[in-house]
Write a structure and sequence with these properties.
By secondary structure, the chain is α+β, with helices and mostly antiparallel strands. It contains 9 helices and 22 strands. A 6-stranded mixed β-sheet has the order 8-9-10-5-11-12, with helices on both faces. The protein has a 5-stranded antiparallel β-sheet with strand order 15-14-13-16-22. The protein has a 5-stranded antiparallel β-sheet with strand order 17-21-18-19-20, with no helix packed on it. α2 packs across α3 and α2 packs parallel to α4. The radius of gyration is 25 Å and the shape is elongated. Bound molecules: adenosine-5'-triphosphate and magnesium ion (MG).
C-alpha cells in the first residue's frame, strides 16, 4: 500500500519502523501530562513493548502512533514518512484496543474477515485468512457467536485475530493478553511473538506486566509518568538498570540507603545506617554522596549464625516462605534495614523465624543510584 504524505509517497507497509521524536500529549488544558517529550525508535520487524504502571501514558503513546490522538508537540514517522495529520485508516496498522472493541452486531466470523473484505481482498483470500487467524487463537469453532456470547478472554482473542487478519505490517497491541487466564496468557505470549516473527511484522505491545514484557519482547521501553526511563533488551534492563525505578519494576530489588564513605581505584565503600560497611564496584559517585544500593533477592546468599566476610550483614529471620520453585526469606539486619532473599527451594535449608543469620552478596552484584530527591519511597511508588 502507498500513502501520499505531503509531497512524498510513503510505502507504509514496506517499512514499518516507527520513530517518535520529542512527542508530548497533555489533556485537561495541560494539567495532565500523559506523554512527556518521548523519543522512541522501533525497528522494522522488532517486537517492542511499552511497559509501565497504570496511568503512565502507554495507551496514549500507542494511540498517537495509530493516529487516534494527535500529539501537542513532536513528530511521528512510520517508515520514511511523517504521519502527522494522517488519519488512522491510512496508516496501515493493526490495532488491538485495551477494551477489545469488537463490532457487537457482527458475529465472530464477520468481525475477523471485516478488515480483509474492506481492503478489497477476494472472498477466497479473506476466508482463508479468517480461518487461519481463528485457528490460531483457537476459536474457529465459535465463528457464529456474537461478542456478547463470549468471555472477556475469548473476545480478546477475537480482537487479536481481527487485527492480524487485516494484514498490516505494523501491529499495535494494547494489553492484548490482559483479560486471559494466567495459563492461556503464558501460552499465547509465545504464540503471539512467534506469529509476529513468522509474519515479519513490527509490533508495539503495551503491558503493565513485567513478566509478559520480558517473555515476549526484543526490547522493552520502561515508562513512568509520561516519560521513557530506559529502553533495552530484557537482559539489559535486568542486568544494567540505569534508573532506580527500573531496578524496582523489572525483577525485584532490595534497596539499602547509605553514604559513600570511600572511593578507591578498586571499589567504592558505602556506609549504611548503623555504621555497616558494604563494598561495590560503583564508579559514578563521590565521597559523602547519599546513595541507594539495589541488590537482587536471588543474588543474596544466606548462612546460619554470625559470619564475617565481605558484604556480610548480620540479622534475623522475620519471615520464611516456601513458594514451590523458590523459598523467600525476609531478614531484618542489626541496623534496622531489611532485605528479601530468594533461593531455589531445592538448595535451601529450612529457616525458622527468629533464627540468626548472615546475608552476603558479591561486590560486583549491586547497583548504586543517587538518592532520589523526593525520597526513596516516593520514587518507587507505582503512581
Ligand atoms: N482522553 C483523555 N482525557 C483526559 N485524560 C486522559 C485521556 N486519556 C488519557 N488521559 C490521562 O493521561 C494519563 C495517561 O493515560 P494512559 O491511558 O495513556 O495510561 P496507561 O499507561 O495506558 O494506563 P493503564 O495501564 O491504566 O491503561 C492518565 O493520567 C489518564 O488519566
Ligand atoms: Mg492503557
Amino acid at each position: 500500500m502507498q500513502v501520499q504524505v505531503g509531497s512524498r509517497i510513503l510505502g507504509v507497509s514496506e517499512m514499518p519502523d516507527v520513530k517518535m521524536l520529542n512527542v508530548t500529549k497533555t489533556f485537561d488544558k495541560g494539567r495532565i501530562v500523559a506523554v512527556d517529550h518521548v523519543d522512541l525508535f522501533v525497528h522494522d520487524k522488532e517486537y517492542l513493548t511499552l511497559l509501565g504502571p497504570s496511568g503512565c501514558g502507554k495507551t496514549t503513546t500507542l494511540r498517537m502512533v495509530a493516529g487516534l490522538v494527535e500529539p501537542d508537540e513532536g513528530e511521528i514517522y512510520i517508515g520514511e514518512g511523517r504521519v502527522s495529520g494522517l488519519p488512522p485508516e491510512d496508516r496501515d496498522i493493526g490495532y488491538v484496543f485495551q477494551q477489545y472493541a469488537l463490532f457487537p452486531h457482527m458475529d465472530v466470523w464477520d468481525n475477523v474477515t471485516y478488515g480483509p473484505l474492506v481492503k478489497g481482498w477476494n472472498e477466497k483470500k479473506s476466508e482463508g485468512i479468517g480461518r487461519e487467524m481463528l485457528e490460531l487463537v483457537r476459536l474457529y469453532e465459535r465463528t457464529d457467536a456474537f461478542p456478547r456470547e463470549l468471555s472477556g478472554g475469548m473476545q480478546q482473542r477475537i480482537a487479536l485475530a481481527r487485527a492480524l487478519a487485516a494484514g498490516a505490517k505494523l501491529l499495535l497491541l494494547d494489553e492484548p493478553l490482559g483479560a486471559l487466564d494466567a495459563k492461556i496468557r503464558n501460552e499465547l505470549r509465545y504464540e503471539l511473538r512467534k506469529l509476529v516473527k513468522d509474519l515479519e511484522l513490527t509490533a508495539i505491545h503495551v503491558t503493565h506486566d513485567q513478566g509478559e514484557a520480558m517473555a515476549i519482547s526484543d526490547r522493552i521501553a520502561v515508562m513512568r509518568k509520561g516519560k521513557i526511563l530506559q529502553v533495552g533488551t530484557p537482559q539489559e534492563l535486568y542486568m544494567k538498570p540505569q534508573h532506580l525505578f527500573v531496578a524496582h519494576f523489572i525483577g525485584e530489588s532490595n534497596f539499602l540507603e547509605g553514604y559513600v564513605s570511600k572511593v578507591t581505584k578498586k571499589e567504592t565503600v558505602i556506609e549504611l545506617r548503623g555504621g555497616l560497611m558494604v563494598r561495590t564496584l560503583d564508579k559514578t559517585h563521590k565521597e559523602d554522596d547519599k546513595v541507594v544500593i539495589a541488590v537482587r533477592p536471588e543474588v543474596l546468599t544466606i548462612e546460619k549464625g554470625k559470619k564475617e566476610g565481605v558484604n556480610s550483614l548480620f540479622g534475623q529471620v522475620e519471615k520464611f516462605r516456601f513458594e514451590g520453585t523458590n523459598t523467600r526469606c525476609e531478614i531484618r539486619f542489626e541496623n534496622g534495614d531489611s532485605a528479601v532473599v530468594v533461593r531455589p527451594a531445592l538448595m535451601t535449608e529450612w529457616l525458622d523465624v527468629g533464627e540468626k543469620v548472615t546475608v552476603s552478596f558479591p561486590v560486583e552484584k549491586s547497583f548504586v543510584f543517587p538518592y532520589p530527591k523526593r525520597g526513596l519511597r516516593e520514587e518507587l511508588t507505582l503512581e
